Each structure stands twice: as structure tokens, then as C-alpha cells.
Amino acid sequence: MLIKKIYQSDTHEWHMFGRDPDKPEKIIDTNQYLIKTANKAILLDPGGIELFPTMLASVVRLLPISQVTHLFASHQDPDIISSLGLWDQTLENAKLYAPWLWESFIRHFGMDSIEYVPIPDPGLTLDLEGVALEFVPAHYLHASGNYHVYDAKAKILMSGDIGAAMEPAGVPFEVSDFDAHTKHMETFHRRWMPSNRAKDDWIERVSKLDISMMCPQHGRVFIGDDVKRFLDWFSKLEVGSGIPS
Amino acid sequence: MPTQENYFVLAAVVAADLHGAMAVARNISLIASNARALALRAGQGAAGFRAITDFIDELAKVTMSSSRTISGLASTFSHTSADMARAETALARFDWVYRRAHDSPYLVSLDGAYRRTQRNYQRLQGVFKQQVGALKVQLDALARELRTATVLSAMSRVEASQTGGQFEGALNLVAQNVADAAEEIQHLVRRSQQRFNYLV
């Protein structure tokens, strides 16, 4: 699995994990993120059960496992958090921040020692050793209880399934040609995102944030002006294609 | 020999079989009630049969109670097996990480989790053995109890023949029903015993 440091400051670092060559062919490629402060760390959307050993091997390249004190699950999907039962055997005294709506569902993945911290509908802010991480509501995009993570200091938005792209294995981490990239995103967003109203509400909320990097859970990272390009493109896209208009 | 992963499947199948045995035992209880009513109608000639119905009823109660206990034990055992499989999976994944990330600077930080999971796995193995033993004892006890069904069925036939006349056929049918139901339960219990023989 490739690891890329995407942000570094005096207070914290962001790392991105993905493009796993050991991944079984028929499971969707995912990006995982880790935010590391001096003594703590949070794994964002730590991934599916199939991915667990490579993720764990990648994490211990960066920090001692006891430093992983927090997990975040944007929603309940298996590619997001089905590894929970194994993280539960790995981490002592960790907390999982996840939508309140999905608590009784996510617990089906197995959770004895990790503490579930339900995120309320309006979201909340986690203070990770002085770094404010805001869990921004993204309900119905695509899950009915869904959040993204915004780091105002790093100007990074981890945007879950928003901005996801379906591409062949091994593509670069970053978007280099936005217009060409849209063809890899269109079907995904039109089919997986159910609600134009939810989409518009999210765009309005996110447009107020200062974002220099938008990091989805699948596909490539949007940098600089491509973030604005994405929001414009998404605002014009009709979603909910599962129901014929 | 089942693999670790399908111990809990085996336990679930035994729980289901014993649940089936409970349903058959309930039928025996019904048969006993009907037999009692029939014996009363048959009058003095069926006095011996009436006494036997109490034993049939007792057999049904014991079978239901034992089946419920065994089914509950099998269900608990199934949970233990699932927890063991989870711990074993975690250990296998950790082993993979130790092999693949042997040059990682923080690999040693996994040692605590590995030892913890290993301890938990060993504890579960102890619980597993204990539960298999308890299940085997209960299954054997139930199997012994069910042997009395053959005796009861034979005695019922003898007593039915004593009544003569219009009730003999009906009472013989009761004896046959008891024998059939007991045979069905015995079959389920034998099957469960065979399944658990793999584990002891």
C-alpha cells in the first residue's frame, strides 16, 4: 500500500494510504487517511476487513500503534469500517467517532473495547491535541447519516464518497486534468448520491470553508482551484439516477 | 475434522437439532395427554396403561428440559467459537504484518496487542473445551434417558393388549407414536453426539 504525506505543520501531519497492490481484485480501491499530532492520531475511514493487514502494516511504518487513539467512520459501509472488529483487537482505549444514526448497525462489525462516540446530526468538533477537526454533516451523501472531516488549519476537507472516482488500479493520488477526470466521477455521483436537495445543502455549507485540498475516499485528491471546479461541476449534476426521471 | 471457522457452524447445527428435539418432545407430551384421556374412557381394563402415561409425560418433560439446556449450551458454544475465530483471524493478520513490515520502525508497538489477543485466544480455548465437555455430558445423559422410551413403548403395547376390545387399536397407536417420537429424538441426539465427537 502506498503512503503519502499530504500535509505537515508544527502541530500535525496528514497521511494518505491507498493503491494497495495486495487488494483482492473485486473490491473497490479506497483511500484511508491518518492525522497525526505529537502523541495522538486519528484514522479516517480505516477501511474494510480485507484491507486491515496492509493498513496496519502501513500505520506501524509511521507511528507506534498505541498512538492511534481515535477512529472516524464517515458512515456505515463495509469499505469504510468493516475492519472495526480487528481494530478492536488491536487498539486499547480508542474512541470511534461515527454517526449516531449508525451506532447499532456499525456495532455489528464487532466492538468490545473501542468506545463509540456518536456524532450528532449538526456535527461536532474534536480537539486532537490542539488541532480542531470538524465533523461536517453530509447527510444523504450518500448515507442518511454521513460526515466529512474539515481541518481549518491544514485547509483540508476529507470528503468521503464526494469526489470519488472509479478508475483503473494504480492511478496517481492527485487530479491533474479536472475536465478529463469528470468522466470517472459522473456515473458514481449520479447513481450513489440520492438527493439533489442534500447535494445543494452540502455545497452551500462547504463553499463557506477555506479548502485547499479535498480528499475523497475513492479516487484522487483535488488541489487548489480544482476544489472550486469540483463544487461547480457537482452543483450542475443531476443525482439520483437510480430512479428514472 | 472441522476447521476452527466452522466450529460455530457445527454448534449452531446442534442447537437447531436440539430445538427440533424439543418440538418432538412437545408432541410426546400431547400423546401422553391423549393417552391419559383414552385410558380413562377405556375404564378399569386400561388402569395399567393409565399409569404408564405418567411415565410418558415425565419422559417428555425431561426431554424438553434437557433439549432446552443443550440448545442453550450449544448457542453459548457457538458464540465462543465465533469469538475464537475472530481472535484467530486477528492473530493471523498480525502474523502477516510481522512478516511483511519487519523493517517498520514501530512494528514492536504491535507486541502488546499480539500478546493480549493471544491471551484472549488461549482463554477462549479453555472456555471452548469446558463447554464441549458440558455439552457432551448433557447429550449423553439425554441419550440414556431416551432409552427408557423403548421400554415404555413395549410396556404400552403389553398394557394395550390387556384392554382388548375397541380401545386396543387406539392404545397401540399411542405406543407406536411414543416409539416413533423417541426414535426421532434419539436420531437427533445421536447426530449431535457424532458431531461433538470431532471436538473431544
Radius of gyration of chain B using CA atoms only: 25 Å
Tally of strands of chain A: 13
Shape field of chain A? globular
Number of discrete helical segments of chain B = 4
Secondary-structure element string of chain A: EEEEHEHHEHEEEEEHHEEH
Uncertain spans of chain A, ≥5 residues at pLDDT below 50? Answer: none
Mean pLDDT of chain A: 95
Largest sheet of chain B: none
Largest sheet of chain A, if any? 7 strands, mixed
Description of the structure:
The complex is a heterodimer of chains A (245) and B (200). Chain A has 245 residues and is an alpha/beta fold. Chain A is 27% helix and 27% strand. Chain A has 7 helices and 13 strands. In chain A, the strands form 2 sheets. Chain A has a 7-stranded mixed sheet with strand order 1-2-3-4-5-6-7, with helices on one face. Chain A has a 6-stranded mixed sheet with strand order 8-9-10-11-12-13, with helices on one face. In chain A, strand 12 (213-216) and strand 13 (222-223) form a beta hairpin. In chain A, helix 6 (196-207) runs antiparallel to helix 7. The model of chain A has no long low-confidence stretch (mean pLDDT 95). Chain B has 200 residues and is mainly alpha-helical. Chain B is rod-shaped. Chain B starts with 6 loop residues before the first helix and ends with a helix. The model of chain B has no long low-confidence stretch (mean pLDDT 84). The A-B interface holds A 52-54, 56-58, 60-67, 85-86, 89-92, 110 and B 86-87, 89-90, 93-94, 96-97, 100-101, 104-110, 112-113, 116-117, 120.
